[in-house]
Amino acid sequence: MKTNLLHIKNMVCPRCVETVKNLLTKAGYEPTQVTLGQAKLPATAPVDPRAVAPMLREAGFDVLLDRAEQLTEQIKTVLQEYLEHLRTAPAPLTTSAFLADRFATTYSHLSKVFSRTANLTIEKYLIRMKIERVKELLSYGEMTLVQIADQLRYSSGQHLSNQFRQVTGRSVSEFRRLMQPERLSLDALG
Questions:
Q1: Where is the HTH araC/xylS-type domain (predicted)?
Q2: Domain 128-182 maps to which CATH number in 1.20.1530.20, 1.10.3720.10, 3.40.50.970, 1.10.10.60?
Q3: Which of 8, 53, 83, 174 lies 20 to 30 Å (CA to CA) from residue 63?
Q4: What b/e string do you get for 79-107 counting C-beta neighbours within 10 Å, with b at 16 or more?
Q5: For the segment 118-166, what is each residue's pLDDT rounded down to a tens digit?
Q6: In what order do the strands lie in the sheet with 33-35?
Q7: pTM
């Protein structure tokens, strides 16, 4: 099964893109484009995904062969964009409207595929992403909890505080007291 488009799991940042590009180039493939979750190869050089999987796995990535897994990874990537949309849009779309618009399909379909593949709902995954963003912002010490809540579109600082405790098992003030707050990388969220 040769392909010109590899779907790759656990790519979450520009360094991941560069690493995958370098790995493929080193292996003799010249990708024409590498973006979060994908590597395009020239039509003249199709690759068997199973052949490059071990090399990518060593670097912490996985090749996705199943269409549902591919869609789930694409949803995760678009949810990263959604967090930025929440921060910058004067009247942000709901998660369901944002995803349905991006994928030109129903949120119900996306939700079913995501839940089945990731073993958690889109909503719970998004909450985990938001809490990791909260941890990041708290570790900088530049914003109050109310400012962070406003940026991430929580109804109040208290709502954010309650959700933070539910997800992390500790209060925001306990987290702040830690010398080295434990943060998770986005690819470890689910």
A1: 73-178
A2: 1.10.10.60
A3: 83
A4: beebbebbeeeeeeeebeebbbebeeeeb
A5: 999 999 999 999 999 999 999 888 999 999 999 999 999 999 999 999 9
A6: 33-35, 38-40, 5-9, 62-63
A7: 0.74
Mean pLDDT along residues 77-105: 94
Q: What is the pLDDT of residues 5-28, one digit of tens each?
A: 898 989 988 999 999 999 999 988
Domain 5-65 fold: Alpha-Beta Plaits (3.30.70)
- Which amino acid type is present at position 64? L
HSE-up of residue 5 (Cα within 13 Å, Cβ side): 7
How far from each other are the two terminal CA atoms of the chain, in whole angstroms? 28
**One-letter identity of residue 47:** V
The whole-number pLDDT of residue 117 equals 92
Tokens 């709901």 sit on residue: 94
